[in-house]
Amino acid sequence: MSPRWEPNPHIRRGRSVIYNLHVHLVFVTKYRRGAFTDQTLTRCEEIMRDVCASLGAELREFNGETDHVHLLVHYPPSLALSTLVNSLKGVSSRRLRQEFPAHVRRYLWDQHFWSPSYFAGSCGGAPLSIIKEYIEQQKRPD
Length: 142
Description:
Elements: E1 12-13, E2 18-19, E3 21-29, H1 38-54, E4 58-64, E5 68-75, H2 81-99, H3 101-107, E6 114-123, H4 128-136
Antiparallel strand pairs: 1-2, 3-5, 3-6, 4-5
Helix pairs in contact: 1-2, 2-3
C-alpha cells in the first residue's frame, strides 16, 4: 500500500485555480526618515496582517528597521498587486498616524508616511533557470 498523499499547505486552492504566489515587498518611509521604533514596527506588522487577511492574503514574514519594512506576502491571483500595496500603505499610514500622532509628527509631516515608490519582487518555487529549462524541453505538437 502506498503512503497517503498529504496536500502541501503552501499551495492554496480557489474555485478554479491552484496557486502559490509570493511577493517580497519593501516600503520606505517618506524621506527615509527613521520613524520606526520597536513599538511602532510591532503595531505596523499587526495592521499589515489584518489588511492582508481582509484581502484574502497572508503576511508570512515581516521585519524592518527605522526607515523601512520588508514583507513576504502569500496572495491570491485575483488580488492585483497594486491593490495590495495601496491597501497596506494606506491603512498602515492612517492607523500609525492616529495611534502615534506625536511620534510620527516628530519625523514626518503633511499627510505622507510612506515614500510613493516601493520594491516588489516575485519569489517562491523553482529558480527561473529551472523553469526556463523545463519550458525549453517541452515538445511542440507536430
